[in-house]
Amino acid sequence: MPVPAAAGSPHATDRIWTIPNALSLARLIGVPVYLWLLLGPHDDAAALGVIAFSGLSDYLDGKIARALNQTSRIGTLLDPAADRLYVFATLLAFAIRGIVPWWLAVVLVARDVALGLLIPVLRRHGYGPLQVHYLGKAATFNLMYGFPLLLFADVLGGTAGEIVRPIAWAFTIWGTGLYLWAAVLYARQVAGIARRDGAGAVAASG
Questions:
Q1: If we measure between CA atoms, which residue out of 43, 180, 176, 32 comes closest to residue 100?
Q2: Which residue in 12, 38, 145, 198 has a CA-CA distance of 20 to 30 Å to 70?
Q3: Rounded to a whole number, what is the largest CA-CA distance in the chain?
Q4: Residue 203 confidence (pLDDT)
Q5: CA neighbours within 13 Å on the CB side: how many for 126?
Q6: What is the CATH number of domain 19-205?
Q7: What gap in Å lies between CA 140 and CA 121, rounded to an integer?
Q8: Sign of CA dihedral 5, 172, 32, 19
Q9: 158-205 and 102-116 helices, crossing angle to 10°
Q10: What is the model's pLDDT at position 1?
Q11: Among positive and negative, which fits the CA dihedral 29, 35, 40, 41?
């Protein structure tokens, strides 16, 4: 399990104006554009371009942050926030358009809402957001491949679309499973923090 990131972690700085943060901000700005392309003109090819840029910038900002020692606290928040928003925007648009069932959208959004409710518990015990678990990264990786491929299958249509669609659903199903598994691990970690701190408080008072 990952080690929780304390609020005053020495590995991140308070810098705001960095190249990785600029890339993360560009990804965030791209979310409403991406959603409009999917639900407005249904320009799926352009939407694929936006999501491809998002994936590339997501890869680059981590590389640049480590290479230039530009890791920052705001960056550790912006990066996963952009991932979550792209997943949410995709689920909303795909459910509205009938590309994925509504139950899948509800399950994945409910997962993020449930984890969000754990943040006050962490803050009460003196911790910031948990470090992203490798399972969470793997889940996001699968979903960020599965969703564009589902869209690509619709763009292709015909026999080519039917070949791509099961591959897309394989990524989506694996991503969903890992997404939920990672949530269980995060919840267990928060529960462990609460139990440990509670036991420490009892020992100190005794």
A1: 176
A2: 145
A3: 72
A4: 52
A5: 5
A6: 1.20.120.1760
A7: 24
A8: positive
A9: 20
A10: 36
A11: positive
Single-letter amino acid code for the residue at 87: V
- Give me the residues of the chain with pLDDT under 70, please: 1-14, 75, 128-129, 198-206
Query: Reduced to 3 DSSP states, what percent helix, strand and coil does the chain have, rounded to the nearest 5?
Result: 80, 0, 20
In the chain, the amino acid numbered 2 is P
Beta bridge partners of residue 72, listed in sequence order: 13
SS3 72: strand
**Which pLDDT score is estimated for 154?**
85
Q: Helices 73-97 and 102-116, interaxial angle, to 10°? A: 160
Q: Which of 113, 164, 173, 105 is nearest to 142 (CA)?
A: 173
What does each C-alpha distance from 186 to 104, 119, 123, 127, 132 come to in angstroms? 21, 11, 15, 13, 9
133, 80 in Cβ contact below 8 A?
A: no
186-195 core/surface letters (b: 16 or more CB in 10 A; e: else): beebbeebee
Q: Looking at this protein, which amino acid is placed at residue 62? A: G
Per-residue confidence (pLDDT) for residue 94, from 0 to 100: 93
Tokens of 35: 């959603």
Give the span between the Cα atoms of 29 and 199, in whole angstroms: 44
User: Residue 13's beta-bridge partner residues?
Assistant: 72
Please report the pLDDT score of residue 9 as a whole number: 43
Amino acid letter, residue 23: L
* CA distances (Å), origin 6, targets 72, 176, 192: 14, 28, 15
